[in-house]
Amino acid sequence: MHVVGVDAGGTKTRAVLADRNGAVLDESVRGPGNPSGGKENRAVEAIAGAVLDVLGTVGEADGICVGTAGIASLAPVSHRMFTALLADRTGTDRVLAVPDPVIAFAAGTRAENGSVLIAGTGAVAMRVAARRTIASRADGYGWQLGDEGGGQWIGREAVRRVLEHLDGHRRGGPLTERVLADMGFAEAPSSGEVVALCMSHAPTWPARFARIVVEEAADPASEEILEAAAERLVATARKVTAPDEPLVLAGSLLSEKTPLAEAVHDLLEADLPGTRVLTASAPVDGAVALALEEFGSA
């Protein structure tokens, strides 16, 4: 028996071939696989291409589970069409397409019900019911309206503190120095030059500085940002987390042992005592687990 798990994101699609025990046998990475915004065909090509890559040695799969952010924004008829296109392109009608928080949740627990808090470039919390269904959500509203505590939010706060330093309202430090160096300034610029540089890039560009904030966690400015980010993330998780159900932490900022993840753990212990807090492995592992659960008796 062989199944394929797929984590299809806005920048890349990762597919893995696994056996009945979940052991990974092959892997492929293709381009963006998010079908939202009228990009269903492009997403299908990326996902199907990655799936067919890993099926090269075995020929066919007993089941495929695809987790992608865009599936939650599709109308039911578009969801069915998307799944049908994947089935046609991959040569199997055993395709399960679910929102990416579902595979993130499955990558952290085998529980039927619970919640997942994801912090990467953005930030969102969702309650998962019966392993497949999104029962409720909090935040995940994008860089303009929310995603509080995520990488974009953290990076923007870092740039704001740099601007305050350049205008003489805040003392600088390692965080300021590294952000300016990463921006490419050899000498101290004006705040206007920094604003102009940021405006010349995509709106999510400041998310690149979240890594520096985490690495310079001892800097008072970074400490301030991370504390505020943790508070916002926990407030988001609190809105969807039910008593006696597990909470899975996922996303690049929470799935590793970072100062932010530690701060979130500490706040959760205080705010949601008794909640079992777990950490997800790679989301594609959750897609494999769901494929085995769904199609294991095929």
TrEMBL record:
<keyword id="KW-0418">Kinase</keyword>
<dbReference type="InterPro" id="IPR002731">
    <property type="entry name" value="ATPase_BadF"/>
</dbReference>
<dbReference type="InterPro" id="IPR052519">
    <property type="entry name" value="Euk-type_GlcNAc_Kinase"/>
</dbReference>
<dbReference type="GO" id="GO:0016301">
    <property type="term" value="F:kinase activity"/>
</dbReference>
<protein>
    <submittedName>
        <fullName>N-acetylglucosamine kinase</fullName>
    </submittedName>
</protein>
<keyword id="KW-0808">Transferase</keyword>
<dbReference type="InterPro" id="IPR043129">
    <property type="entry name" value="ATPase_NBD"/>
</dbReference>
<dbReference type="Pfam" id="PF01869">
    <property type="entry name" value="BcrAD_BadFG"/>
</dbReference>
<feature type="domain" description="ATPase BadF/BadG/BcrA/BcrD type">
    <location>
        <begin position="4"/>
        <end position="290"/>
    </location>
</feature>
